[in-house]
Specification:
- This protein is of the alpha+beta class and 207 residues long.
- The protein has two domains: 82 residues, RRM (RNA recognition motif) domain (Alpha-Beta Plaits), CATH 3.30.70; 75 residues, Alpha-Beta Plaits (2-Layer Sandwich), CATH 3.30.70.
- The protein has six helices and twelve strands.
- The strands form four sheets. It has a four-stranded antiparallel beta sheet. Strands 8-9-7-12 form a four-stranded antiparallel beta sheet, with helices on one face.
- The longest helix is centred in the first third of the chain and has 20 residues.
- The termini are far apart.
- About 12% of the residues have low confidence.
- One of its GO terms (molecular function) is mRNA binding.
- Keywords: RNA-binding.
- InterPro entries: Nucleotide-bd_a/b_plait_sf, RBD_domain_sf, RRM_dom, RRT5_SRSF_SR.
- This is RRM domain-containing protein.
């Protein structure tokens, strides 16, 4: 009888042990990351193509950017920021390996997103996206000097043209000022458009 009681007690404990052995799945939901990296883009994909594809599930896309070389040539990858974590999760789960302009795209969370605090390796240069095409360098400078001492502000133009590309570069006197700008000025409005602000990942200057 004692042996049967021990087996019964062991059987009753077994389901509880199985549940506790299952590790929780790490997701963007737990980290609060709303940005994704999109790879294997066709060279002719524009930011608008990328944005339209990523919002095909009905989610709200705050920003879409195709990364380029200093020459203006596409790098074949981009970054997309969604309004909610759930929209981000849906994109990763449902749009990964879908086709955009004939190429299957690769989607994962942007591992550099959210690095707004700290010196970010001493980087003092910021990328500012979603600029109104009418934005002048001095307007960009005035908007960003609230976070610290701006040493340079440029609105990037098409090569050989005065037409703006819709983004700019801002440099600060210190990495601390740059981090403050990322933390406080991302998603603020300039000329009626919400700005996308992050540390510039390009090793070479774009201007």
């Amino acid at each position: 009888r004692d042996q049967r009681d021990q087996r019964d007690q062991r059987d009753q404990r077994e389901p509880r042990r199985e549940r506790t052995q299952q590790a929780p799945v790490a997701t963007n939901q737990s980290r609060g990351n709303r940005s994704v990296y999109v790879g294997n883009l066709s060279w002719d994909v524009t930011w608008q193509d990328l944005k339209d594809h990523m919002r095909s599930l009905g989610g709200l896309v705050e920003h879409a950017d195709v990364l380029t070389e200093p020459s203006g040539r596409s790098k074949g990858c981009g970054l997309v920021t969604f309004a909610t974590v759930q929209d981000t999760e849906n994109a990763i789960n449902q749009l990964n390996n879908t086709e955009l302009k004939g190429r299957p795209i690769f989607i994962r969370e942007d591992r550099e997103a959210g690095e707004a605090t700290g010196s970010h390796g001493g980087n003092t240069r910021l990328y500012v996206g979603n600029l109104d095409y009418r934005t002048e360098w001095y307007e960009l400078n005035d908007h960003f000097k609230s976070a610290g001492t701006v040493t340079r502000a440029d609105v990037v133009k098409e090569e050989g043209s005065t037409r703006a590309k819709g983004y700019g570069i801002v440099e600060y006197a210190s990495a601390e000022d740059a981090a403050e700008a990322v933390a406080t000025l991302n998603n603020t409005q300039l000329l009626g458009r919400p700005l996308f602000v992050r540390f510039d990942r390009e090793e070479k200057k774009r201007y």
